[in-house]
Every structure is written in C-alpha cells, then in structure tokens.
C-alpha cells in the first residue's frame, strides 16, 4: 500500500510513526512545503527573543525519515488533489496514492488592510522562516507594532520587548485574548503587559500600513500614526484549505472528518489543524493545537491501515504565558454559576457551571488542574458535590475518587 501524507507537522509525523510501527512494508511518501525536518512552532517566539536556540526547535533529526523508510520530499507544496485518479499534484509532478492523509495544517490570517500584505518589515510568526525573517529585521528595528492579541500576538509582543524594542499592541476587539478570557480576566493580562512597557490599545482598528524606503514605517490605527520599523500580524490562523478546489472534499472552517478521520471522499483522510469535526453533538469546531494534531494523526494512521480506531474528541484547552504569568482557558466565558478563587497576590481562577456541570474555565497565575476540569466538562460530570473546592488550585483527579473529608485544602 502506498500512503501519501501532505504535511510535515505533528499530525503528519504522528501518522507516519504510527503507520511504520504497525506496518513495516507500506510505502510512505511525505510532501513537505517547508525545507527543514520536523520542528515545533510552539517555541518560535522564544527563538526570536533568544531564550531558545535554533537546534532545540527540531524534534526529529534529518536521518529520522531514512530510518523509518519515509520518502520525505522537502519544498514540495501540493497544488491540487485528483481523487478520481488517486493522485496529488506537487508542482508539475503527479504523485499516486492508495490512501491520502491531508495534514497541511493552518496558515496565518492576513486581514485585507491596505499596505499590509507584501510590505517589507511585516511578518507573521507561524513558521521557522517567519522567525528568522524577524530576527534579520531586528538588526535595525527599534519600534514594533503587533496586530492581534491572541496567544501568538502576546508571545510575539513578549519576545520583541525582551529584544529591547518599544512595542505597541493593537487589538480590534474590546480586550486582549478575547477568545480566551472575559473582560475582567483580560484586564489582569493587560496590566501585566503595561507593567513591562507595552503600549496596549484595545478596540483599535488598523486602517492602513505606511511604507518608506526601508519598508514599513508606521501604522494608521483609529486615525493615529504609530511609527514602527517592524510589524507582526497575529490576527489569527485559518485551516489551510487552498488545495481542496475541485477535489470534492467537503469543508467549512476546516476539512470535515468523522471520528475515524475520514473525509467524505473515499481513501482520503485528514488530521491536525486542518480538520473540523464534532466535539459536541450540537456543533462543529476547529481546535488547532498540538495534542489534537498528534492524536488525530495517530487515529488517521490506524484507520488508513484498516485498524478500527475512533477519536475521542478534540481538546480545546488554551494555554499561554505572558511575562511568566501562566494563563489557561476552555469552554464558555459565562455560565449560570461562576465559582471563583483568588490568592490576593494576582492569581485568579474562575470555573463556569451550567446545570451543575463544568461549562468553562479561566485560570490566571495558578493553572494547575486545567486538564482535569476540561476532562470533566467533556464527560459532563456532575460537580455540585465538590462545591467551591472545584475551583481551588489543589483540585485534581484524586478528589473525584476520594470522599471530600479525606482531602486537605491548603
């Protein structure tokens, strides 16, 4: 059997390793848009700030592919999928497959702001190439603007501050981390940013980018001109669906897959940041994160080989660290009941309940147990018996199994 994998990220690698562990004889061809071995994009901001060296980004060495009999083709972006002929097109080359896995990941979203796309000195922070381009720009940049305050935007802001730049953070919505936090919790994060010299402007729409002889020179936002020599566009990511045109593969925000990672087209599977699947009966969602990529890649591999495995559902816990302050969130931002804990030193935890069950959580400063709370939300566990102990940072799996009288709370 010949299996073609589009991508070289965590979903692709997880699938390839599972395939090889289960079947020593299948042919694996991996088509990678990038030109380097598998690396983690998670510490790219730390690479920019200088706290992580380039070598530590790579999670597999260059010989990994040969050792596992994986035919890796670097710099081979796929342009088109032709299911009727069971082949994909990479440039002018047609690559045949018996099973196809689309693990092409996500791409940075660039808003249609005049002057933004293509301006020198304007970057995303999604790939290693992006990070290295930013590092080159640091040779003469002294002021930076970051557009967007999601986790990539905040990580980029922190990196540039630690590189000694004056940084302005622009967010079109009313507070930072709008997808993760409510306004009260976001205010704690904004205060942390300001304490480290960041100029934060929320509810601030970017109108256009001004370019000079050396590239970007200013941003016009709400009528104000903000000088800068470097701009990071962190306006979010989107599933990369560019190769689907004409393929018949169903998609909405992502490629639609079932619990076996099958698309609607026979012999074609998808995994990782590019997928959309039900993780609750009433809705579909895209949840681009590392654990989902690894688990969905593994499940896809089993099912491509005819080994029945179901995916348990996407994880949707978001975690970021802002100037050493950890933040985690999941689920809804409002609920029937809000349990609250704080230590008086800046740490605040909220757990939202609906009908006696966990519906969401926001944790700042103390994020221990976020995974436990999220798992209880996924399972629909009745939590009323735990009372306010549920929101305490010491709450963990053991407390779901032992009588509360046996638990000591610090």
From TrEMBL:
UniProt xrefs under InterPro entries: FAD-bd_OxRdtase, FAD/NAD-bd_sf, FAD/NAD-binding_dom
Domain FAD/NAD(P)-binding: 1-297
Alphabetic keyword roster: FAD, Flavoprotein
Keyword Flavoprotein: yes
Cofactor(s) listed: FAD
Superkingdom of the organism of origin: Bacteria
Similarity comment: family membership: Belongs to the FAD-dependent oxidoreductase family.
Protein name (record): NAD(P)/FAD-dependent oxidoreductase
Originating organism: Azorhizophilus paspali
């Amino acid at each position: 059997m010949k299996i073609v994998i589009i991508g070289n990220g965590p979903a692709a690698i997880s699938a390839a390793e599972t395939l090889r562990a289960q079947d020593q004889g299948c042919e694996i061809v991996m088509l990678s848009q990038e030109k380097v071995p598998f690396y983690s994009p998670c510490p790219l901001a730390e690479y920019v700030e200088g706290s992580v060296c380039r070598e530590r980004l790579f999670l597999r060495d260059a010989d990994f592919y040969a050792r596992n009999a994986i035919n890796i083709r670097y710099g081979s972006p796929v342009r088109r999928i032709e299911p009727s002929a069971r082949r994909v097109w990479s440039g002018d080359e047609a690559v045949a497959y018996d099973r196809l896995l689309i693990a092409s990941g996500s791409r940075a979203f660039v808003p249609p702001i005049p002057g933004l796309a293509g301006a020198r000195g304007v970057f995303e922070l999604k790939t290693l190439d992006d990070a290295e381009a930013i590092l080159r720009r640091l040779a003469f940049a002294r002021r930076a603007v970051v557009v967007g305050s999601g986790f990539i935007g905040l990580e980029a802001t922190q990196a540039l501050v630690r590189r000694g730049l004056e940084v302005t953070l622009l967010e079109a919505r009313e507070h930072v981390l709008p997808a993760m936090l409510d306004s009260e919790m976001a205010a704690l994060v904004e205060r942390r940013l300001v304490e480290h010299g960041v100029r934060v402007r929320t509810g601030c729409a970017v109108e256009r980018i001004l370019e000079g002889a050396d590239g970007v020179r200013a941003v016009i936002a709400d009528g104000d001109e903000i000088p800068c020599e470097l701009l990071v566009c962190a306006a979010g990511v989107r599933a990369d669906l560019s190769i689907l045109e004409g393929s018949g593969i169903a998609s909405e925000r992502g490629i639609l897959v079932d619990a076996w990672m099958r698309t609607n087209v026979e012999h074609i599977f998808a995994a990782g940041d590019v997928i959309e699947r039900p993780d609750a009966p009433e809705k579909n969602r895209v949840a681009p994160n590392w654990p989902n990529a690894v688990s969905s890649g593994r499940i896809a591999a089993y099912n491509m080989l005819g080994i029945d495995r179901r995916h348990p559902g996407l994880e949707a816990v978001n975690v970021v660290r802002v100037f050493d302050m950890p933040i985690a969130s999941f689920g809804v931002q409002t609920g029937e009941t809000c349990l609250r804990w704080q230590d008086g030193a800046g740490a605040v935890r909220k757990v939202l309940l609906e009908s006696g069950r966990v519906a969401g959580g926001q944790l700042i400063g103390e994020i221990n147990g976020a995974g436990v709370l999220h798992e209880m939300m996924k399972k629909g566990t009745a939590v009323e018996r735990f009372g306010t102990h549920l929101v305490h940072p010491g709450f963990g799996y053991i407390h779901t199994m032992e009588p509360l009288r046996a638990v000591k709370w610090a």
